[in-house]
Write a structure and sequence with these properties.
216 residues; mainly alpha; Tetracycline Repressor, domain 2; 2 domains; 11 helices
């Protein structure tokens, strides 16, 4: 059943940020709902999936769902942003990269970008819905904040290795996160399927702000 109220453009109540995925029960619930969402998306458009159907498929009570999310778009936005963040699985400890070559560091980040672009390509219809919906499901905001955190870590890695020391780290992280968000949106609405080329194009921007690392 379509979420007609959401599609009408009415404001939504989103409480996704209150979900603490470090709490085992909440994590299991989120995982079950996400698995159910992807199962249903194989046969249905996002607008055709009702909360009742999602919860029934996941084995989760409706009241539990509404304790965190206002509608299907709010949950989908949180779920897809979480998945993309998980796919950016580069170490969060800058010390991990000590002694690594610029090429090895680049390869690690390229792999995370490759995984993200592949996921968007494989679920393009849903991502187009998330980027293009008239309802603010919080997807852009949620994804940007996660990308910003990852970008901040990447800048910290470069600066720890003596590169990009003359730039403001917060400005650089914001620039990278915003640019990545734009690339992901463009990729979602494109019909391109060559992930390797898209990854190389995206990674080609890295030396522009981290040039000293590549000159070593």
């Amino acid at each position: 059943m379509p979420q007609t109220a959401a599609l009408s453009g009415a404001p939504t109540r989103r409480q996704g940020a209150s979900v603490n995925l470090t709490e085992p029960r909440a994590a299991r619930t989120h995982e079950a709902l996400t698995a159910a969402l992807f199962e249903l998306l194989r046969e249905h458009d996002l607008t055709e999936i009702s909360i009742s159907e999602l919860c029934r498929t996941a084995g989760v009570h409706r009241t539990t769902f509404y304790g965190h999310y206002a509608d299907i778009f709010a949950f989908a936005g949180d779920a897809f942003a979480h998945i993309l963040d998980e796919l950016a699985s580069v170490s969060e400890d800058p010390e991990t990269f000590d002694g690594m070559s610029a090429e090895a560091i680049t390869a690690a980040y390229a792999e995370s970008v490759r995984e993200q672009l592949t996921h968007i390509r494989d679920h393009r219809a849903a991502y187009r819905m998330m980027f293009g919906t008239r309802v603010d499901a919080g997807f852009r905001r949620e994804l940007y904040q996660r990308l910003l955190r990852r970008a901040s870590l990447a800048v910290a890695v470069c600066q720890r290795l003596g590169a990009a020391t003359q730039i403001d780290s917060a400005t650089a992280a914001s620039f990278i996160a915003g640019g990545s968000l734009g690339v992901f949106e463009e990729w979602a609405f494109s019909d391109e399927t060559d992930v390797e080329t898209a990854t190389s194009f995206m990674m080609a921007t890295s030396p522009a702000w981290c040039a000293p690392l590549y000159s070593k």
